[in-house]
């Protein structure tokens, strides 16, 4: 596990981000979504199991409105269940929190595996996917961050664990811890600036600009030995 959180930590939003592309639902580019994945389409909600509906509703409230608005009553209403129906599946708020963190761990594990086999390389993969704002993985990261900000220490532990998994893959790919940190922070910087512009168009994050950054980072890697 990583030590105490520093200022440059993985994707720590400072405000509630706008939710864009609410109809999108993306698996890791090179791997299938694990059990318990979530997406934002209304038709999909009808096909989900009740526990999945509850967790998706909870995550949506955390991402869009924050912890204070994510009461048991609000989660039940958003998931189309009664409060008793919700508590039949999750006996407490803590149980729902744990489910979010378990699902985050599963998606991070899948994403790290996808990074290792990405044909463009782990560094370019990491930076290139940093704009996937409404993906199930990014939504769970934001939801876990909200829980951490509300005092859930297990959320911070899980998020630090996630950061370390991505860092390990980058170190293995690049062969240099400093370069790996550079890539990690570059990707997180892109994610941060995506947060602060909301739904507005900003040439600073134009696709061509991010592609150029990703291409440059894609040239990093282990140097051939003589």
From TrEMBL:
<feature type="domain" description="HTH tetR-type">
    <location>
        <begin position="48"/>
        <end position="108"/>
    </location>
</feature>
<feature type="DNA-binding region" description="H-T-H motif">
    <location>
        <begin position="71"/>
        <end position="90"/>
    </location>
</feature>
<dbReference type="InterPro" id="IPR009057">
    <property type="entry name" value="Homeodomain-like_sf"/>
</dbReference>
<dbReference type="GO" id="GO:0003700">
    <property type="term" value="F:DNA-binding transcription factor activity"/>
</dbReference>
<dbReference type="InterPro" id="IPR001647">
    <property type="entry name" value="HTH_TetR"/>
</dbReference>
<dbReference type="InterPro" id="IPR050109">
    <property type="entry name" value="HTH-type_TetR-like_transc_reg"/>
</dbReference>
<dbReference type="Pfam" id="PF00440">
    <property type="entry name" value="TetR_N"/>
</dbReference>
<keyword id="KW-0804">Transcription</keyword>
<keyword id="KW-0805">Transcription regulation</keyword>
<keyword id="KW-0238">DNA-binding</keyword>
<dbReference type="GO" id="GO:0000976">
    <property type="term" value="F:transcription cis-regulatory region binding"/>
</dbReference>
<protein>
    <submittedName>
        <fullName>TetR family transcriptional regulator</fullName>
    </submittedName>
</protein>
């Amino acid at each position: 596990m990583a030590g105490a959180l520093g200022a440059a930590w993985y994707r720590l939003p400072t405000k509630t981000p706008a939710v864009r592309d609410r109809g999108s639902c993306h698996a890791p580019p090179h791997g299938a979504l694990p059990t318990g994945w979530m997406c934002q389409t209304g038709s999909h909600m009808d096909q989900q199991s009740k526990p999945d509906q509850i967790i998706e509703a909870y995550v949506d409230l955390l991402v869009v409105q924050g912890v204070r608005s994510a009461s048991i009553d609000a989660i039940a209403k958003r998931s189309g269940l009664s409060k008793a129906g919700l508590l039949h599946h999750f006996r407490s708020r803590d149980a729902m929190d744990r489910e979010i963190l378990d699902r985050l761990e599963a998606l991070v594990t899948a994403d790290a595996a996808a990074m290792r086999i990405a044909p463009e390389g782990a560094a370019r993969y990491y930076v290139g996917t940093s704009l996937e704002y409404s993906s199930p993985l990014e939504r769970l990261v934001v939801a876990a961050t909200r829980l951490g900000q509300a005092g859930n220490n297990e959320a911070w532990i899980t998020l630090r664990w996630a950061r370390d998994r991505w860092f390990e893959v980058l170190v293995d790919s690049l062969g240099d811890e400093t370069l790996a940190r550079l890539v990690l922070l570059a990707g997180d910087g892109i994610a941060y600036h995506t947060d602060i512009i909301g739904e507005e168009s900003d040439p600073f994050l134009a696709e061509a600009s991010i592609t150029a950054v990703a291409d440059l980072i894609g040239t990093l890697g282990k140097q051939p030995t003589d």
